[in-house]
Automatic annotation (TrEMBL), chain A:
Basic and acidic residues biased stretches: 136-150
Originating organism: Pyronema omphalodes (strain CBS 100304) (Pyronema confluens)
Gene3D superfamilies in the record: 3.40.1350.10
Stretches with biased composition (Low complexity): 172-197
Top-level taxon in the UniProt lineage: Eukaryota
Lineage, uppermost ranks: Eukaryota, Fungi, Dikarya, Ascomycota, Pezizomycotina
GO biological process, one term: tRNA-type intron splice site recognition and cleavage
Stated name of the protein: tRNA-splicing endonuclease subunit Sen34
CDD domains from the UniProt entry: tRNA-intron_lyase_C (cd22363)
Region (Disordered): 136-200
TrEMBL record, chain B:
Keyword Nuclease assigned: yes
Stated name of the protein: Similar to Probable tRNA-splicing endonuclease subunit sen-15 acc. no. Q7RY78
A cellular component term, taken from the record's GO annotations: tRNA-intron endonuclease complex
Keywords on record: Endonuclease, Hydrolase, Nuclease, tRNA processing
InterPro entries in alphabetical order: Sen15_fungi, tRNA-endonuc_su_Sen15, tRNA_endonuc-like_dom_sf, tRNA_intron_Endo_cat-like_sf
Gene3D superfamilies: 3.40.1350.10
GO-annotated biological processes: tRNA-type intron splice site recognition and cleavage
Family: Belongs to the SEN15 family.
Record domain tRNA-splicing endonuclease subunit Sen15: where: 18-138
A single GO molecular function term of this UniProt record: nucleic acid binding
Organism name: Pyronema omphalodes (strain CBS 100304)
Length: 338, 138
């Protein structure tokens, strides 16, 4: 696995019908490492679209994640449909040819490397079998001499019983045969390798490797749009976004919480390493919540060894320079235990 | 039949029910009423610590300070509606400076017990912390 290429900020987030997607695995790991955002892998297998155990690219970001990345200036939103069409149209004939040439070159290179590796492996096997053959030949000669000496002593009648060592003597034969065939193949092998070096690669003599479209290479990279259209900007829920920012700014990793009966799950570190601490719900500062929901939340949280959290952001006071993420008040609820 | 709005918003009966429950059922001591605004509160000392810091070694016996830890209680009716603003106002009405330290030696955040009174006088208690506090059983 090659090391992840450094990602240049700002990077594009592709918006498709209100969902925010990342297609480049380097960007995905960059976002996770630097921005503490995990998103949700949403690409499934074309053959088994129903399964949700093995999911891959693209990564779908939460609206809050996309909004915060844009807010920080780490990313910009691109409309995926128009970007794709524009990219295809703008790819001139020359670019196309250059891309195809580059691709062929890459195929050739990979194929040659593969072939060379195969040859090296084959050569290794030949060396081993040659050693074996020499050893077996020696053994055989010794056995033969012993047998002849015995036959000279005994009558012909005992021949079959006396030929007991025969299987042992016969044993080397298959090995010998295979070694012989390997030797006969050996002269061909170098020829094949010189062939591939001089002749253009065809489908019969090589395994073809199809390169994966790298979205970060030039023609496919969607440049920063000159005028950012506000219709594309992620618009997170104003009552829960401050809570998201509050927890995120304090180093928590947040993931969507619908499966757990809340808005966000808050992990104290990367969600692969830690259990979540909180199941969080964001409310407006004056948004009402039934006491029975607080009780239910407290029970839910305690039942899964977490704390249930709710909170909201008070409106900005005059002279208060703190941002939403610092003004937000959160309250953790746990069962009292008595 | 549920209470009228007036009955729900008048707190003396809530205070009385919770105080009674604490003294006679849960065996608390030094239970005191506090006429704070926006809500009247109770404080008291439980027979044994009701909140054990998740970072404290559970095999060690509770410290002197833990045994004398005063807990604050907010009696509420089950059918009330609350909001982040109301909760913040109650926390802001709590006195500063009596909150002690957590197991890591940091000044600990305020906490209180939400004493939820249901129609049938059942009282159930939930801890509410003012801020991000690691849950106990993790």
């Amino acid at each position: 696995m090659p090391l992840a290429e450094p990602v240049q900020e700002p990077f594009p987030i592709y918006a498709v019908n209100g969902t925010y997607l990342l297609f480049d695995v380097n960007v995905v790991s960059h976002v996770r490492k630097k921005h503490h955002m995990c998103g949700v892998l949403s690409g499934t297998l074309p053959q088994v679209p129903q399964q949700n155990v093995f999911l891959g690219l693209p990564l779908q970001l939460m609206v809050e994640e996309a909004a915060l990345l844009v807010e920080k200036g780490a990313a910009y939103v691109v409309d995926d449909v128009t970007a794709h069409k524009k990219g295809l149209k703008e790819m001139m004939e020359e670019d196309k040819k250059r891309y195809m040439d580059q691709r062929n070159e890459e195929i050739m290179k990979t194929a040659l490397e593969h072939q060379a590796a195969l040859e090296a492996k084959k050569a290794g096997f030949i060396a081993i079998s040659k050693d074996k053959k020499a050893k077996k030949d020696k053994e055989k000669a010794e056995k033969k001499a012993a047998k002849e000496a015995a036959e000279n002593d005994d009558e012909l009648l005992f021949g079959p019983t006396k030929s007991e060592p025969a299987p042992v003597a016969v044993d080397p034969t298959p090995a010998e045969a295979s070694a012989a065939s390997a030797v006969s193949e050996a002269p061909e092998a170098p020829e094949a390798s010189t062939d591939t070096a001089s002749k253009p690669v065809t489908t019969d003599n090589l395994l073809l490797h199809y390169p994966i479209l790298n979205t970060s290479t030039f023609p496919f990279h969607s440049p920063l749009p000159e005028s950012s259209s506000s219709s594309l900007l992620p618009r997170p829920n104003p009552s829960s976004y401050p809570l998201y920012k509050h927890l995120h700014s304090r180093g928590y990793f947040l993931s969507p919480g619908l499966r757990f009966g809340c808005q966000f799950m808050a992990y104290p570190g990367d969600s692969l390493r830690y259990h979540s601490h909180f199941i969080a719900n964001g409310l407006g500062w004056d948004e009402e919540i039934d006491m029975i929901d607080i009780v239910g939340g407290g029970r839910l949280g305690t039942g899964v060894k977490k704390a249930w959290m709710f909170g909201g952001c008070p409106p900005k006071q005059e002279g208060d320079e703190r941002g939403e993420e610092d003004r937000t008040r959160v309250f953790c609820v746990e069962w009292g235990g008595f | 039949m549920s209470y009228s709005d007036l009955a729900v918003s008048s707190h003396p009966h809530l205070i009385r029910i919770v105080e009674n429950h604490l003294l006679n059922h849960a065996d608390w001591r030094s239970v005191t009423q506090h006429a704070f605004t926006p809500r009247p509160l109770l404080s008291g000392i439980p027979p044994e610590p009701v909140y054990v810091d998740p970072d404290v070694d559970p095999s060690k016996p509770p410290t002197e300070a833990a045994l004398e830890q005063v807990e604050w209680l907010l009696p509420v009716d089950l059918r009330e509606k609350w909001s982040p603003r109301k909760m913040a106002e109650v926390f802001d009405s709590l006195p500063e400076g009596v909150w002690g330290e957590n197991a890591k030696g940091e000044k600990r955040t305020k906490r209180m017990l939400l004493a939820v009174v249901a129609e049938d006088s059942t009282v159930s208690y939930y801890f509410v912390h003012d801020g991000i506090v690691k849950p106990r059983q993790n």
